[in-house]
Amino acid sequence: MMSEPMKFDSLAGERLRFSTRPLRRAGDQVLARVGAALGSAFLIGDPKIGLLLWLAVTVGHVRGLIFGLFGLWVGDVIGRLIGVLDKPALGGGVRANAILAAIAVAWLTSGAYLRVETEIALTTLAASAAALITAALMRSLAGALFPPMVLGFSLVAGTLFTLFPVWVASASNTLLVWPAPSGIWPDTQIFIRSLGSLVFSPTMEVGAIIGVAVLLWSRVIFFTGVAGWVAGALTAIELQGLSVPFYWQPASYNFFIAGMALGAAYFLPGWPSLGLAVAGGSGAAVLAALIQHVQPDWAFLPLSAIGIIWIFLAAFTLSGDKKLPRRNTRHDMPPERVWMYEVDRTRRFGHQEPLLVVPLAGLVQITQGFDGRLSHAGEWRHALDFQLPPGGTIWEAPVTAPAAGTIEQVRDDVPDNQLGVCNYAESWGNYVLLRMEQGGWALLAHLKQASVAVTAGAHVELGAYLGQVGNSGRSPVPHLHLQVQNSPRLGAPTSPFRLANYETQTAQGGPGMLWREAGVPREQNLLAASRPEAASYWVLTSLAPGLGVWTVEMTGQMPWRFRQPRERGKIEHITTRMDAEGQHILASSRGDELVLHLDPDAWRIREIHRLHTPLLRLLALAVPAIPYAARDLLEWREPALALACTAGSFSLSLWPYRRLPLPEMRCLCLEAPKTETGLLVVESTPVRPSIWLPSKITCSFRRLRGPVRVEAVFETGSISCTQLSFEPGLPF
């Protein structure tokens, strides 16, 4: 047990953190309104990095900072009045457009010598108009493909430029002359200065600050932006060579924004999206030349970037081709990290295929799988046939719903065949067609006559009783046919799907079973639906919020990623809390976080935020998921997401292009709890050993406390982490 002084210090530290929460919460709100608002215009989702952009505005001209903050206030008021929830992560929300419109007024009136009240009125009008246009776009485009971006600002600024050409000419006189593209250094100057054009300060200092901000947010998004800029610059030079009058340097930031958006922000990074970045930069150059020819005063606004982004989003998203780049639906973290989580999710559950559970109880055999040798071919190749292992009969076995949904059609009057005989007039025999809540239709065919227990229009939950296995239709022996299709038409072409939460025999043929989160079993595979073990379920789902005090003991020489910092000593404090979504968060005092989720099938680590603490790093590496079905000798394999999360920022940015597979861990349940108060012990070993990885990690779990012991063995040493005490806290 922990000594009284140590316990007092832990509780005192926790009370101190609790007392500072209101202050931190207020600071977070300020960051969200100030840093995130302007950062969204540059596709930056970190409010702290967004503050660098305000520094860039200040360096450009303090007047722009004052006007920008006033525009932020106007945008905030407009958003509150009309009840529009700002979504700055989409590339420019209500506040971002109001800020940029106010900065545009600051630049436009810098040489007009207007009265203060006139400037305030004009700024209020411009910021309000930009905010209202953006709010209207956000409401009209809700659920659509097109983000509003900074179109509201562009329309307002373009209108001002058209109405006040004298002011535009006066303000433009203060800008430096742009160099001609004649070498590496002049081209670099053009690139850096162009980054400041969006805030009307195209100087080296402002552009450098903005470039650093983008680079700090994401190396990938900066790289794709540069690729788009280079492609756009080359296209612009080629247009000039074709005698097209095009003063492209001030507008070239459009190429950069198009490359960022298409290469990483709106599509997941990778070689296909890098191609989109190059094409987007080139297309933005062509659009910018066209706008400059039609309306010169509007040429240097981000209209060409917005236009080309919308065109590509519509073209590549509406196609629905899974081979094309996937949409990036998260903007609260760098694209390379989103890509990593998507690879992890795809490795576990596939790419958006429907997930179905095994519709039969007990051990069954796949007698014909996808691309089967008999009837599962061509447009109907995605189907599974279930029978019992040799020596058993599946006749009259209960059939349950493989997913939740609504019964679309049923057939229950087709007589069953004698063994070896098929009814070719009624191919599907008796069947149930289920319209699934997750999308698509599941067909369960060859059921026994007069056994179907549901009717069309009825809603069924996962696992609901549907009928019995029979031998009706084109079926020579009793079996259950399962397929997924995208149409309610009987016999429609099939679609890929996966079975979820099931167990198969291990490759070694040992006494244990191999748990699969999701997969497509092969022909002749023996499998069974995975059922939760009551004691394991309670150990995994009863993790309570609170403060745990751990001791960390190391022997020998550790790889640097797993060394305990000297200033931390041998004691580590791990706080367990729950967020508003009901997810558990294990957090160290150094800011590391593991986000856990209690999914229907398993205890699973969903996200990893920093991993400097060896204890949390080992835990994330060893048990990315633990099934509720955990029992003695149950085995499963998990992608080692923790390794990717702990990779350096530069290394992680290369993963989408190097196509490196996530390393796998082989997990084995050494000891399952016999009662709700028992111990759950899991041993994990890397599938491919490495000197940088432990050869073995053993994790122990108890009810309420969660993990209580983590031990890791390396080639040159070992780590032992033990929970000394646990102080339960409030649920939220």
Would you kindly provide a written description of the structure presented here, covering whatever features stand out?
- By secondary structure, this protein is of the alpha+beta class.
- Among the domains are: 355-529, Glucose Permease (Domain IIA) (Distorted Sandwich); 534-728.
- Helices cover 38% and strands 21% of the residues.
- The protein is built from 19 helices and 26 strands.
- The strands form two sheets. It has a 24-stranded mixed β-sheet that branches. Strands 4-9 form a two-stranded antiparallel sheet.
- β6 (430-436) and β7 (441-447) form a beta hairpin.
- α2 (21-41) packs across α5 (94-108) and α5 runs antiparallel to α6.
- It starts with a helix and ends with a strand.
- Mean pLDDT is 89; it is low at 1-19.
